[in-house]
């Protein structure tokens, strides 16, 4: 092989490797879960059997696969992992959305700004930061899930929410093109309401200084340090 041929071969190999790596990076969008993966792949990762019923992959089929932290065998879950519940949604056996609910005790004390900062560490600055409406300090008026911030990265959309009436957080990661097909096929939207939002921070009881305030701040700092979106 001539030096020119070697150079061409190496260039083609590098280009192919770069395309393959880029594809893997753009498809991996929540921890080890990749949009477009089938139910069997995801079920093996989480240790939960595939959803029964209609044959996966049938035209227009929408199915969910659910995981809760209680399902994890001792030693399987990472110590301190804040995830309490995962819902994987598939359209024609392709993963198009993941809803992640975080355990309230693992986010206790964390403010909305703390959560946005943690998610931004993974996905970069949010495309939209949605501030609360109404007067600070008023009790929470609605029980709907409400959006705090949104990220748009390539063909992926990420929303950070507070869950209805609770001091807890939820994140929704979805593939924009696959979700469009799923919605056209009749898949329900993941609940997310960005209107007339009251801050989760305002809904918490105030710590009136002293030991209570110090304990809350200690818990907050510990949860910030250990939190992984």
Hey, roughly how much beta strand do the residues contain? Answer: 15-25%
What's the alpha carbon Rg, rounded to whole Å? 21 Å
Give a short account of the largest sheet: 7 strands, antiparallel
Domains (count): 2
Which bin fits the share of residues in helices? 25-40%
Shape: globular
Distance between the termini: 50 Å
What is the ordering of alpha helices and beta strands? HEEHEEEHEEEEHH
Let me know the average pLDDT.
Answer: 75
General description of the model:
The chain has 229 residues and is α+β, with helices and mostly antiparallel strands. It folds into 2 domains: 1-30; 33-226, no CATH class. Helix content is 31%, strand content 24%. It contains 5 helices and 9 strands, in the order αββαβββαββββαα. The protein has helices at 3-27, 39-46, 112-123, 176-184, 210-226; strands at residues 28-30, 33-34, 62-68, 83-91, 94-102, 128-129, 146-153, 156-162, 169-175. The strands form 2 sheets. The chain has a 7-stranded antiparallel β-sheet, sandwiched between helices. Strands 1-2 form a two-stranded antiparallel ribbon. The protein is globular and about 60 Å long.
